[in-house]
Known about the structure:
The longest helix is centred in the first third of the chain and has 37 residues, at 2-38. This protein has helices at residues 2-38, 41-48, 52-58, 62-84, 88-102, 106-118, 127-150, 160-180, 187-198. Helix 7 packs across helix 8 (160-180). The protein has 207 residues and is mainly α.
Amino acid sequence: xxxxGASSSRGPYRKTAETRTAILEAALEIFAVSGFHSGSLRxxxxxxxxxxxxxxxxxxxxxxxxxxxxxxxxxxxxxxxRRLTSDEASALHALVHLARVNESKLxxxxxxxxxxxxxxxxxxxxxxxxxxxxxxxxxxxxEAFAALERRGRLKPGVTVESAAIGTIALMDGLQTQWLxxxxxxxxxxxxxxxxxxxxxxxxxAAI
Length: 207
């Protein structure tokens, strides 16, 4: 009896999780194409075959849905980078790997390109998210380049701060160029070339 009860109780939870995932994936696609302000809950609901009320049952409002979409994608990226990082050199390899993986995730790259621009407005609901995201990314980069500097592995004239900021700027710029003309830009190869130019870390496979 107890086994049957446990099995039946898992059903609704599993269904809820699947529904939330479907909503998040639909919202990612809508916001990636239209941005936050133009993309509507009605569009998201239509994409998953639900009513607006059905979507709002899982996410209190559009801002909450956006936060959940961004958190879900960031968690996946952070987990992948952590999995591949064992030291300062592998941290840079992990970034190149992430750039390569993103070349198969057009919607995600577009989402961040669109929203990071929109979020420069102080009243945008994702403003705080992107401020924090860039701060965390800069700190991750500083730690990796500082460790390389202590080992004498930064190229002459390169500072930890310039390398960290330059890497992030390059990644953002490469994503924009790739979105406009994917065939003209190899994001992972260009990132690897830049990192090879500021450190002595080798990226033969990527380049």
